[in-house]
Amino acid sequence: MHLIITEKNIAAERIARILAEKRYVETRREGGVSTYSFGDTTVVGLRGHVVGIDFEPGYTNWRSEKHTPRSLIDARTIKTPTDRKIVNLVQKLAKRADRVTIATDYDTEGELIGKETYDLVRAVRPDVPVSRARFSAITPDEIRSAFASPSELDFSLASAGEARQIIDLIWGASLTRFISLAARRGGRNILSVGRVQSPTLAMIVDREKEIEAFLPETYWVLSAGSERDGEPFTVRHATARFTSRDEAVAARDRTVAPLVVTESREGSKLDRAPPPFDTTSFIVAAGRLGFSASNAMRIAEDLYMNGFISYPRTDNTIYPASLGLDGILGALEKTEFRDDIGWVRRNRRSSPTRGKKSSTDHPPIHPAGPASRAELGEERWRLYELVVRRFLATLSPDARWTTRKVSFDAGGEPYLTTGSTLEQPGWRTVYPYSSATENELPPFAVGERLPVTAVRLEEKETQPPPRFTQSRLIQTMESLGLGTKSTRHEVINKLVGRKYVEGNPLRPTLVGRAVIESLEDHADLITRPEMTTSIDAHMQEIKQRQRSRDEVVNESRAMLHRAFDQLEVHGDEIGRDIMGRTLQEQLLGPCPVCGSDLRLHHVRSSQFIGCVDYPDCRFNIGLPATNWGFAIRTDEVCPVHGLNHVRLIAKGSRPWEIGCPLCHHIASNRETMGLMPSMTPALMDRLNAAHVYAVNEIAGADPADLALAAGLDQGAATRLREEAGDVLDLLRKRSELRKFVRTHVPPRRGRSHARIMKALFSRGIDTVEHLAASDPATVIASGIGEKEATTLLEAAVGLSSDRRLREMGIPPISLKKYYAAGIKRPEDFVRVPPTALMLRTGISPDTVHRHVTLIAEALGTPPPKRTTRVQLERGRHELLAIPGIGESTIEKLYAGGVYDAETLVAADPRVVAQQSGLPVRRIQDFQARAEPPEPAAG
DNA sequence: GCAAGGTC
């Protein structure tokens, strides 16, 4: 069998169909992975890298004394499968293969993926021949010729890729750990560092600093109005910008009619048709249509997967000869672009436009199949149309503009105006995206004298450089060689996710700035695009076998060690610096109690707002736990309290706007405050005004302070405090009940726990004990299903009994044994005879006696009779002496509380029968036989 | 828990 392995599933399918020629291609799915077979050939697609690189085991603990961040530099790296299913399938197929062809993408990363695949194959088949097919486009011509003359895997190129992998991992991981630990940030707040992300962040930070440092300069612009044949037009002074106001004013004052035409020059300007789309230019063009970079890529991938456009991740801007441009045009014939295609056919340029970059990986982005507006939907259609029109534009002639520059003189001052008309629209006929506005000028004749209707002097200011938009940043990254066609847009998302940048255009956050500035001070290289440049150069050397992979990696390790020499000396300083500067991002505004600042705190999964003067000022506001969303400060400020608003952000769901935290705090506490019997709305307002907002604040207040704050007498204040204590107690119990209900009643659509809880509270059920004592009907009426109500009640009874028993002093270890024997409630202990308890639990008679006595006391029932081990032993002999009683009967009698002749005789046979399961008649017989013989008379 | 690179 000939096994062909491609980089992705869709390539496997298309290659199979091409190579199968007219044969049927059989598709099989194994464990979610498709294979395509025809004749003796099977094609299977990987999913990019199916093995990943990581450190050898032992380096997972960031705080390990032994495995410090620095130790990662020299840690060994290993490759482990990241996609078991595919790895297994590839190896399974390889076992049956008599030759293997690796057909991954024709670029460095593709060669590395090919090498990884080669290793997987070799692990199970040391001898099978493995070849490599290289192609730049999945077109019949290219595929056929690539497979007709396969070559060998380029191990040097793959090694170059591996060097990059290792260097990225050790630099990224060690620096990320180091700086996160220094700044005491963990979990979702870690500070990441990387060869691509850090220089990208640095560009955004640098731009922001440029903007901040920018000093605007004032300048003046002089223009004049005139008209010709009733048509107004404007001319501007030949000095585009006056830097001196005096000069500008003087020029204005000299400007007097007539406005004389001194020269009119006509020219022609070539407006070249645009080159084919690569990923970057596509993202830029989509950006102009309002698509974010990652959104544009997401949609492009979708269009690609469905066969509407070609592979969207490419660096190529030159169509390969094999592409078959006519075929593509023909395929689009039946779309709504028919007229445009007709125009292109009639006006087609001799050869398509070419960009500056040609690469071997994939052709430029082009349409791959026809589509209609209706089947794609608005968003996808707009991008599909963009790709189609761009393709058409690359086949269209250049456009040509006629330009005109007219010069004037007014009182000796030179003026001019320019105009342009689209002489030959060329490609612009089919590509209406880039704005090109015509500005037609009247046919001025030299010497013509015109009026001056107005002279305008405007004062303007120079503008700072603009912030980066997403597409601008991606363009800049590309020009610096940062990232790849597939990853650039993801880097931006990563920076946003780490809360390093925000907004569009992109602004750095304080954290982002602090990290870059620290790195620039102590590990400058990682913040510079030159690191990528030098890695690229080293990769070239490895590829050309001038240096080995290990040589390059070791050199990089040495550099990283030098960076750590400096970092470790300044670790504390870096940590303090970052922490100090990022504190500001957590500050919300004035504390209502003491006037210093409130700040957000995040402690593992909990978060709250507290005063920076803690513990001197104890004011605080609780927030929902981070699983509801991570609390951040927003720019909006509450007009009443002067506090920044707070928002909870969670991945994958809409943000929760808390708004002003104090307003939120007041509103959410009004209800619970209202639970206090002597609370009135007026009193609540007075308390709020005195910065007392919550029940717990009242409960913890000094009655004298409270009296003063709320205008109450001492007695009323004390009472209020007690009431608050009671409400807190109630709230605690309610919250426990809420948790209890939540764990026992699974969430379901259309049933909110909040509603169930409200219903329970309104029925006076505030605690688990209340619940245990209530009847099923009440519980069902609160919106819980019948079956669930039963299990909920059972669980409540269990929990509340357990609590009572513990309170009565029964140790948990014994309770476990009682429960296992089915003795669950305190009442069971006084109902079931102690002998039965011993028998069923194996607990000693003395201990059972002690437990039952404790419970009886608590329940107010008579204490049990004490039975000792000796008594039991003697009783056993007495019972065994009675005819018909053996060991097994004794066990049953124990269950009925009978353990000797005396208790047998005294027992109520019906009760014993019920508890022991023995027939009443037998018990009566035993009793008769147990009667001691009448003492002989006389 | 860390990077960047594939792909879904």
How would you explain this protein's 3D organization?
The protein has a 7-stranded antiparallel sheet with strand order 14-11-12-13-10-9-15, with helices on one face. It has a 6-stranded mixed sheet with strand order 2-3-4-1-7-8, with helices on both faces. The protein has a 4-stranded antiparallel sheet with strand order 18-19-20-21. The N and C termini lie far apart (113 Å). The chain is built from 37 helices and 24 strands. Strand 20 (606-611) and strand 21 (620-622) form a beta hairpin. The mean pLDDT is 90. The protein is α+β, with helices and mostly antiparallel strands. Among the domains are: 2-47 and 83-153, Rossmann fold, CATH 3.40.50; 184-214 and 470-578, Topoisomerase I, domain 2 (Orthogonal Bundle), CATH 1.10.460; 218-272 and 401-461, Topoisomerase I, domain 3 (Distorted Sandwich); 279-397, Topoisomerase I, domain 4, CATH 1.10.290; 745-801, DNA polymerase, domain 1, CATH 1.10.150; 824-930, no CATH class. The radius of gyration is 42 Å and the shape is extended. It binds one DNA strand of 8 nucleotides through residues 7-9, 45-50, 52-55, 60, 62, 69, 72, 83, 104-105, 109-110, 112-113, 161, 164-165, 167-177, 180, 186-188, 190, 192-197, 301, 305, 313, 483-484, 486-487, 490-491.
